[in-house]
């Protein structure tokens, strides 16, 4: 009886593992269509140039070791289940079709510029609003040191 239960448990585990992999496969295809592999690789390279990291005099061999372990492939392995969690297989396939279409490819091309310009607008707007709030607080008697 124990052998039957063990065999059943192993078969169930294998089935669930295969089902989970099958569900993640469209998520991998979507990430490929979205060119996330390239984006993650660029992100890793940008991290090396960030002021806190670049100025830390970290030896290049340490950084190379980091890049060997923190790869775009390992990140995609971690991210695929997240896409599979929030999108059905049909939705993933529809997104793949979109990103492979001309407008999807243009979206991938222009999104970094839109994001960068939007961040500049958001920072400017935030500074303007914060300036007015600080001005109002000062009129109410708050000093710069108490803000």
Query: Helix share of residues?
Result: over 70%
Coarse shape: extended
Q: How many strands in all?
A: 0
Strand content: under 5%
Q: What Rg, in angstroms, do the CA atoms define?
A: 24 Å
**Count of DSSP-assigned helices:** 7
Give the terminus-to-terminus CA distance. 72 Å
Profile the largest sheet.
Answer: none
Label the structural class. mainly alpha
Mean pLDDT: 81
Describe the model.
By secondary structure, the protein is mostly helical. It folds into two domains: 2-100, no CATH class; 113-147. It contains seven helices and no strands. It has helices spanning 2-33, 36-48, 51-54, 60-69, 72-86, 89-100, 102-139. Helix 1 crosses helix 5 (72-86) and helix 1 (2-33) runs parallel beside helix 6. The radius of gyration is 24 Å and the shape is extended. Residues 4-9 and 11-22 have low confidence and may be disordered.
Describe the structure concisely for a colleague.
It comes from Algoriphagus oliviformis. The chain is mainly α and 147 residues long. The chain is built from seven helices and no strands.
Helices, strands, pairings?
Elements: H1 2-33, H2 36-48, H3 51-54, H4 60-69, H5 72-86, H6 89-100, H7 102-139
Helix pairs in contact: 1-5, 1-6, 2-5, 6-7
Signal peptide: 1-19
InterPro entries: DUF2059
Protein name: DUF2059 domain-containing protein
Which labels suit this protein?
single chain, 7 helices, extended, 147 residues
